[in-house]
Fold these 3 entries.
Entry 1:
Amino acid sequence: MSLELHCHTTASDGVLTPCQLLELAYENGLNTLAITDHDTVEGLKSAKERARSLGIELIPGVELSCYQECEIHVLGYFVDPDNSQLLATLSAMKKARRERIEKILSLLAEAGIKISWEQVEVHSQGGVLGRPHVARALVESGVVADIGEAFSAFLGEGKRAYVPHRLLTPREASSLIKRSGGIAVLAHPGLCGNDALIEKLLCEGYFDGIEVYHPAHTSKMTSKFRRLSKRLDLLLTGGSDFHRPGAVELGGVVVPADTLYNLKLAAGVLGS
Ligand code: AMP
Ligand code: FE
Ligand code: FE
Ligand code: ZN
């Protein structure tokens, strides 16, 4: 059983279209793929058809951007992509993301760096706009050498062109996912850097699971979050957070053999 539970397409900040991503999944021998774009389910439409023709099981997913003391991402699995409440929130988030990019561009202009809306949009390929698209424009303009520098110098939390995305709290995101029929999983908790906050959020009982395995987690973090998932009786998941070829491979993060079974059991979709 070869599984990928966390990846992005051009519907958000990935570089492969949903169809290209599925073709890569097929080449990599994956049986099951959850597409988890940031704040959109748009990519699932074209993915569904391609997945069927390639014989890959597609899990409808999403990764919601939230804010509580720091950036928190919440993964939703088996959400209903036609749920009206989910779609209304995603539409508000799309608008807020555009306004946020406008603010980021003004902050960059204040710092003497002129990046136009068009220079950013060309990288988004019609998907919801995010900081990685601004980062690519900064690299293309020669302002920074690479995407990493764009974040460490300008776009990352606390940097001079940082604008937080504060539309949802983790609690609201998790409730929305559950109302859409899905399973809510706290994404890459190690990236937040505030273990007390993570534990508090998980103890409140809003989440069904925790993403234990992630490329940004050290082995110490992985052990700690695995223990936490057992102690709080939460589902344990993992994935590569694939955005582009060249870094961690699609399907490159191995999760325990019973992960998919447990996720399906919790979602009530076993046998489907
Ligand atoms: P946004 O959704 O606009 O808040 O942008 C967040 C996305 O930016 C994340 O999902 C990553 O894909 C990317 N990102 C965040 N920090 C970094 C970093 N330091 N280097 C490269 N990409 C990053
Ligand atoms: Fe991303
Ligand atoms: Fe994330
Ligand atoms: Zn992600």
Entry 2:
Amino acid sequence: MKLIQSAKKKESIRLAADLLRQGKLVVFPTETVYGLGADALNEAAVCHIFEAKKRPSFDPLIVHAFSAKQAFALAKNVPPAAKVLAKQFWPGPLTLVLPKKRIVPDVVTSGLETVALRVPAHPVARKLLREFGGPIAAPSANLFGRTSPTTAKHVQEDLGGSVSLILDGGRSAVGVESTVLKIENGAGVILRPGAVTAEDVSRWLPARRARERGSMESPGQMLSHYAPKTAMWMLAESGEKAISSISAAKAKSTGLITFSKKPVSGAFASVAVLSRRGNLEEAAAELFHAIRKLDKMGFRRLIAEPVPDTGIGIAINDRLRKAAGGKILH
Ligand code: TXA
Ligand code: MG
């Protein structure tokens, strides 16, 4: 059996659903990043996810459902605010943290009383969820702490040896993981920024970002996540002035990630431009690709320029900061 199979074939989707029923791991594309899936209600299967990713057991998983109805069947006391957001943003890149029902195994939620739920929009994820007929637990399909995968090939590099099937649905369009949001007293609190922004949410209910550092409101959101193997730094500021402050000697052994322009000065070993036209959505789709590409080139260091801190740019900067393990270059 081929490990990577085109999701265009109906048989592949059927096979994937069968494997899930047998308690096996199946990787599938979502619009954000690729997910490492298992039957969410099968405790042993979910344990395999943690083993394959080498993920600590205190980091809870997101449960994917075909519909809001199927998702909310796993939660209790669903507040009206959650229903409003589900109506507006599902299927899509939004994950809602809600009080869990007992049918959700504790391994899925790392023993928390809440469960993270999401209805993805990617047609292949939807086909698989419909064919399987139940909820699928799936973290991003990378080794723990490493860069999330946006292609089937990325997944093969990280997890090829430990999964039964990788459904290839092309490149993930959004490129950064879903927004994780909890509801507190009728207000939305963003635990992880993503394509659905606080501004988007605030059209429907009051919304704010959770306190940053030291907060364990969302376990697994610690610094040094999404890290490449190459040492990485983030520039304190964007623009040519900040980039040209990197010495020529240093630049020679540096892979640089910029937002929209190649630097006019400085001979960098390689430069990845996230979006030549300065489009944040395009930059997000390119982000993990660029980090993985530069990481493979074996440079001494990677340095990233921050992108405008607005819209999905907030999520991009969050991932860059974490990939750099919080190291800022002034
Ligand atoms: O876009 C995505 O969300 C992707 C695709 C595959 O759906 N999935 C993903 O999963 O990014 P993962 O496991 O890499 O990140 C899930 C994060 C956890 O690290 C944790 O911070 C948060 O979601 N989370 C999960 N359950 C939670 C809970 N009960 N309370 C608070 N945060 C939770
Ligand atoms: Mg992840």
Entry 3:
Amino acid sequence: MRLHVVPDRAAAGAVAAREIAREVRTHPDLVLGVATGSTPVTTWAALAACGLDLTRVRAFALDEYLDIPDGHPESYSAVVEREIVRPLGLDPARVRTPGDDGKDAGAPERYERDIAAAGGVHLQILGIGRNGHIAFNEPGSSLASPCRVTRLAAQTRRDNARFFASLDDVPTHCITQGIGTILRARRLVLLAFGAQKADAVAAALEGPVTSTVPGSALQLHPDVTVILDGEAAAGLAHSETVLAGGPIPFPAPRVASPSP
Ligand code: F6R
């Protein structure tokens, strides 16, 4: 796990965008996993500013509300179109959200199959909920869970009420990639900002691996980059050793001092 603690969201977005841009330069048809919500906003802005040709990139969103009217501006298909596809110049035909081919009982399995058919996600951008969720895998989700229909936790609905007119308008159900689906991505990049995420970040990165903290599943993945601001990193106890960014340099051999 590589950890970057940066001054603010803009700096975090620049680091994440650099990671994505580096991958796109070597794989122009990269399969990118995209998160919605507030966290990745600066990543998309920094990536758009790179001016890279992203027309061959394929993208799969993590999740989508189920009980939301088609075309609702806060549906994740609308958010992805507005905040990711248009500013980045992605080809809409290469961008998917769960249930975009029909919100029927077969949708989760089809989405899982379509990700696999695309060769799997190469680089997955993730945020984390205050309750430790990744995508909409709420506490209690199996660490091997596939793409599926599930309920939103009460806390997630309260947190996301800021995007809706009232709490009653926040959907109750969603289609989400599972934790198992996310763990199959080749690279994971997790971003988190603000003091309200500090407990979830510490529990996910340094606590026991448990379905009670879905984000703790990241400890099972061999290629994770974590980008935090100082507030989100404040609960980490081992950030200088276990999690410190980049490979630890091999120490130069000690030269034995001649015996007196
Ligand atoms: C969004 C998603 C969620 C968010 C998380 C953090 O697609 O999957 O897991 O990443 O709820 O939300 P923000 O970024 O709004 O704090």
